[in-house]
Write a structure and sequence with these properties.
36% of the residues lie in helices and 10% in strands. With 133 residues, the chain is of the alpha/beta class. A three-stranded parallel sheet has the order 1-2-3. It is globular. 20% of the residues are buried.
Length: 133
Amino acid sequence: WEGKKEMRPKTHKYKAIAALCMIGLIAFAMLYERPGKGMHVEVIIVPGGGQTPEGPPEHQKLRLNEAARLYREKKGEVKILVLSGGTPHKPNPMDPHGFDIKEGECSAKYLMSVLNVPGDDILEEDFSLDTLG
């Protein structure tokens, strides 16, 4: 990108928007009740939490297990959004063809293969690299 500043992606703006959204979601969760029978929920958001060549680490599996539980509780009326392309601090694991595996993809595969969540009900965001930017 050297010498082509005008062509460089404006990622800082999107990172700031993502961080504000995350802060808003956390504040909402802290101030209001958890989604219950009287509350309309369309999407369950699962933040990234790292990955290993074998799949999600245990703390990420806990998040995904809870998302699948909530999904079943809502009887498929919601989607699950898994976040993260990885971290800028270490490389993503590679697939057998040499392509990197994004955290969102890793989480989605776990939801489908281990927890039997239909792929049509999983949304992947795999561009973000961290929360604070």
